[in-house]
Specification:
Blueprint lengths: L1 E2 L5 E2 L3 H12 L7 E4 L2 E4 L5 E7 L7 E6 L6 E5 L3 E2 L7 E6 L2 E6 L8 E7 L6 E2 L3 E5 L1
Parallel strand pairs: 4-13
Antiparallel strand pairs: 1-2, 3-5, 5-10, 6-7, 6-11, 7-8, 9-10, 11-12, 11-13
Length: 136
């Protein structure tokens, strides 16, 4: 079991499965998290900016997760801008209310992954559909 920043205990791949379900079948009234772009291909050393837009004000209750192939999701950023322990300082989160960004200042080969935002402001907690980052 893994503890997320939103206080939910989940099996390793449950977070991604729930993200997909909420994205596809979100109930009326749920906060929708929309990520863009859906995918991008960058060269090592380039600056990357991922965006996440909430359908209503979530203050700064947004987290960012990284999921590498065949691995469980890892928390990168919580509270919109707080870097989780051990996360390299090239990862920076910003934003408030409805508009949020995750920036990778100098992308590295090991950053190949899917990146998801999630909101913990209003139950049920919801997640974006993700951005797939590929390295050229």
């Amino acid at each position: 079991m893994h503890q997320t920043s939103m206080g939910i205990k989940m099996e390793s791949h449950t977070l991604v499965f729930i993200s997909i379900l909420l994205c596809l079948y979100g109930a009326d009234g749920n906060i929708v998290m929309t990520q863009s772009p859906k995918s991008m291909s960058m060269s090592v050393g380039e600056r990357v900016t991922l965006t996440c837009k909430a359908s209503e004000n979530v203050v700064t209750y947004v987290s960012w997760y990284q999921q590498k192939p065949e691995q469980s999701p890892k928390l990168l950023i919580y509270g919109a801008s707080n870097r989780y322990t051990g996360v390299p300082d090239r990862f920076t989160g910003s934003g408030s209310a409805t508009d949020f960004t995750l920036t990778i200042s100098s992308v590295q080969a090991e950053d190949l992954a899917d990146y998801h935002c999630g909101q913990g402001y209003s139950y049920p907690y919801t997640f974006g559909g993700g951005t797939k980052l590929e390295i050229k």
